[in-house]
Design brief:
By secondary structure, the chain is mainly α. The chain is 51% helix and 0% strand. It is built from 9 helices and no strands.
């Protein structure tokens, strides 16, 4: 069993996701670049996006279970004609909103978060364009820590011996240099 939390858990779960999308869409509706994209947006849109992002970041599979998954999300972008300027503004505003609502600021989380937001908005651009790929029943992509798991400092156990420093650990190359050798000894 892994002790590494999912990205969803690390960012604060459903409460954090709802806080993020509620604040973001309140801003987007007042933004001169994004307001046209979201004119006529249903009142449940922020919650639906929160459920989508929750699943993307390793939370419950509720978007798949209750909103028809990836295929449904892709169809919501067909024919929308999203521009690169609108996509970029969406990314910038969401990142600013993440700061505003207090999402974690550690570089590991922000790297994974930004990676998906960039990828997801570029996919929205593709689906909204003049020649979108076929919309099929693909699974919702799930983003994880990949190469950068969160840094969780280890707390020392009571009465545990101190770990040796790097210098105190045996190093055969350093030992050879102290003896005046530059090559390993061969048997």
């Amino acid at each position: 069993m892994s002790t590494t939390p999912t990205v969803y858990e690390w960012m604060g779960g459903a409460e954090a996701m709802n806080r993020l999308t509620d604040a973001f869409y309140a801003h987007a509706l007042r933004d001169e670049i994004l307001a046209p994209v979201f004119a006529g947006m249903g009142s449940q849109h922020p919650q639906h996006v929160a459920v989508w992002l929750s699943e993307v970041f390793g939370g419950p599979s509720d978007y798949t279970a209750h909103h028809d998954g990836h295929q449904h999300m892709a169809t919501k972008h067909l024919g929308r004609g999203i521009t690169e300027k609108q996509r970029r503004r969406w990314v910038d505003l969401l990142m600013d909103t993440a700061d505003e609502v207090g999402l974690p600021t550690d570089p590991e989380f922000r790297a994974v978060f930004a990676y998906y937001i960039e990828w997801g908005t570029r996919m929205a651009l593709v689906y909204s364009g003049p020649n979108p790929p076929p919309v099929n029943a693909a699974d919702i992509p799930v983003w994880s820590w990949n190469q950068t798991p969160p840094w969780i400092p280890k707390t020392p156990r009571p009465n545990a011996p101190a770990r040796p420093t790097v210098e105190a650990r045996p190093n055969p190359a350093r030992a050879r240099l102290r003896r005046g050798q530059t090559q390993p000894e061969h048997a």
